[in-house]
From TrEMBL:
It comes from Streptomyces coelicoflavus. This is beta-N-acetylhexosaminidase. Belongs to the glycosyl hydrolase 20 family. It holds the Pfam family Glyco_hydro_20b. The active site is at E250 (proton donor). Coiled coil: none annotated. Its EC number is 3.2.1.52.
């Protein structure tokens, strides 16, 4: 096997030639060589995906020439480890699975109402208190069922360094997310002074044990801004990523409306309302990150107050946020919930475990198009990529995550990498034929995917309430 670099190839692109005299793999850069090696591994067959070689195996390769390069520079997976904690080894495993599918961004959702998952040395209670909850809702938030045992965990800073280094070896960038100003009850439970103390007794709050959106949000004070600046200072030392995600979604405003402190801040800043107060907080961290050579990215709600030029938007509430952001000159990562939220159910059958959201089949994901048709070519250039989101409220362990993510992540990975025809013109039958071989690779990798015929008995969750949404999803 001969390896070479050729600057004339695209970024992350490669050329793979298997000839009688040997294998020649040329990359446009180191990442291109790595992705080309993944293609070579696919050509070797399923056993090449095992952790150790099997004895007495003869390896055969077809004679081929492949020239390949990615369509998008952001090909991501968002992993929510706040709702249900995934131990470090599980995260490393998912980095391996991402690499095998040529995905290159892990969006690491580290904080939420239900848990704080990263060590911050200057604020130790964030993990001492904020990383554990006393019990957990089992199923959708309307379910009467509970897991009556503590749930939690967190990553030490050395764990994070290991995860980031392991990802970098696989040409994957880890983008951390610390959610502000909503989705913050775990932080407030650890440090009650972060909440709206003139409205409720924040000292009585604990880490939230159910799902949905907590009404307990951060107070818009200078002390809170300084606290989170300290959090981000430590994060920047751990994560070298260009982007830092600050959440910015689903921030209830009731406490701010009732808070004399919040209302005084609105008056002081000459803001019109509580929505502009949230925008002021986002703009503060936008400026703070820009001054330190980083770029802010947040969920599409952050568009509502105006952003600095370098800020980017993750469009989750359909396509509209991404369209607006691209037209305003902001970079966009498309992740519309009705298309690529992998917690959504994969079939309409009653045996689907904890059915959530719209039915999104393997074919539906394969026909997902990240770039909205209404964008001009110049505007489309701001769509830097796409990601699939894995929210883990109803995924309590690795088996549940595997079931929801695979095989759909394989379809998503092809969408993110390849310049496919228009959705209606894509050859799904050919994709299914290729998936027949890919299931054997997933078996070798030990992935507990959803079988094409439906869940296996141990994958079902009979009697656990979900929240299915009937009918086709909106295409907007």
């Amino acid at each position: 096997i001969r390896l070479a670099l050729d600057a004339g190839l695209p970024d992350e692109g490669y050329r793979l030639v298997v000839a009688p005299e040997g294998v020649h793999l040329t990359g446009g850069d180191a990442a291109g060589l790595f992705w080309g090696a993944q293609t070579l591994r696919q050509l070797l067959g399923p056993d090449a995906f095992r952790r150790a070689p099997l004895p007495d195996r003869r390896w055969r390769l077809p004679l081929v020439r492949v020239e390949d390069a990615p369509r998008f520079r952001w090909r991501g997976l968002m992993l929510d480890v706040a709702r249900h904690f995934m131990p470090k080894d599980g995260v490393l495993r998912y980095l391996d699975l991402m690499a095998a599918h040529k995905l290159n961004v892990l969006h690491f959702h580290l904080t939420d109402d239900q848990g704080w998952r990263v060590e911050i040395t200057r604020h130790p209670k964030l993990t001492e208190t904020g990383s554990w909850r006393s019990r957990t809702k089992y199923g959708h938030r309307a379910s009467p069922l509970w897991e009556d045992k503590p749930h939690g965990g967190y990553y030490t800073q050395d764990d994070i360094r290991e995860i980031v280094a392991y990802a970098a070896e696989r040409h994957i960038t880890v983008v951390p997310e610390i959610d502000v100003p909503g989705h913050s009850q775990a932080a407030i439970a650890a440090y009650p002074e972060l909440g709206n103390t003139d409205v409720i007794d924040t000292g009585a709050l604990s880490v939230w044990d159910t799902w949905g959106v907590s009404p307990n949000v951060l107070a818009p004070t200078e002390a809170v801004l300084r606290f989170y600046e300290g959090v981000f200072e430590e994060l920047l030392e751990l994560f070298p990523s260009e982007f830092v995600h600050i959440g910015g979604d689903e921030c209830p405003k009731e406490q701010w409306r009732a808070s004399a402190t919040a209302q005084a801040r609105i008056e002081e800043l000459a803001l019109a309302n509580e929505d502009e107060l949230q925008a002021w907080i986002i703009q503060h961290f936008d400026t703070w990150l820009t001054q330190r050579g980083r770029r802010l990215i947040g969920w599409d709600e952050i568009l509502e107050g105006g952003l600095a030029k370098g800020a980017a938007v993750a469009s989750w509430r359909g396509y509209a946020g991404g369209v607006a952001a691209a037209r305003a000159g902001h970079d966009v990562v498309m992740c519309p919930e009705q298309q690529v939220y992998l917690d959504h159910r994969q079939a309409p059958g009653e045996d689907e475990p904890v059915p959530i959201g719209f039915v999104r089949t393997l074919e539906d994901v394969y026909r997902f198009e990240p770039v909205p048709a209404e964008l001009t070519p110049d505007e489309s250039g701001h769509v830097i990529g796409t990601q699939a989101n894995v929210w883990t409220e109803v995924m309590e362990n690795q088996g549940r995550v595997d079931y929801q993510v695979f095989p759909r992540l394989a379809a998503f990975a092809e969408v993110a990498w390849s310049a496919l025809p228009a959705p209606a013109d894509r050859d799904y039958a050919a994709f299914e034929r290729r998936m027949a071989a890919h299931y054997r690779r997933l078996d070798a990798l030990g992935v507990g995917y959803r079988p094409p015929a439906g869940p296996l008995p141990w994958q079902q969750r009979p009697g656990v309430l979900g929240r299915p949404i009937d009918g086709p999803p909106p295409n907007k």
